[in-house]
């Protein structure tokens, strides 16, 4: 290859390189648009799904409440034992007898206290159980029932239990203290005849 041919080849290479550069690497030849750093890509909004809550239908009747009057016995301002009424919701309470005993242990309402009614059943007395069946009922109270007040107070509280029990059932009722039949109660040793009756405290 002579000098002229070499020179021509060199010029051809230079022209080719220049063409490629200006076609692909010049500012006019490159057309890429990069997103700005602060720009966020568009977010496609998803359709909102609302959860439908079924409303009560007319086919579901409201629960009807029925009530039974029970009696509990408290003491008036003169120390006499008197009855007051309570409404037992039979659609809620399993036993209106047990409900009456629960109300007896809870004592007079705020309104009854304002009228002078009290109870000799000591605060802190708990119902351990009220068992109904086999033709009789057993009321089991905690030992707090025996505490304090003296003989007269003990007589009154036992009468409250007896009268409340007999007013709300015709079945024989037995009084227990901490799981043991209460034939003798209180520090004074008051004798109780079982089952409970109006004569249980007679000598």
In short, what is this structure?
With 203 residues, the protein is an alpha+beta fold. The protein has four helices and eight strands, in the order H-E-E-H-H-E-E-H-E-E-E-E.
Please give a structural write-up:
- With 203 residues, this protein is of the alpha+beta class.
- It contains 4 helices and 8 strands; from the N terminus they run αββααββαββββ.
- Strands 3-4-5-6 form a 4-stranded mixed β-sheet, covered by helices on one side. A two-stranded antiparallel sheet has the order 1-2. A two-stranded antiparallel ribbon has the order 7-8.
- A hairpin with a 5-residue loop joins strand 1 (67-75) and strand 2 (81-89).
- The protein is rod-shaped and about 155 Å long.
- Residues 27-35 have low confidence and may be disordered.
Helix content: 25-40%
Mean pLDDT: 83
**Annotation, overall tally of beta strands:** 8
Beta content comes to 15-25%
Distance between the termini: 151 Å
Give, in spatial order, the strands making up the sheet with the most strands: 3-4-5-6
For the CA atoms, what is the radius of gyration?
47 Å
What is the 3D form?
A: rod-shaped
Content-based structural category? alpha+beta
The helix count comes to 4
Helices and strands, in order, run as HEEHHEEHEEEE
The largest sheet is: 4 strands, mixed
Q: Which consecutive residue ranges, at least 5 long each, have pLDDT under 50?
A: 27-35
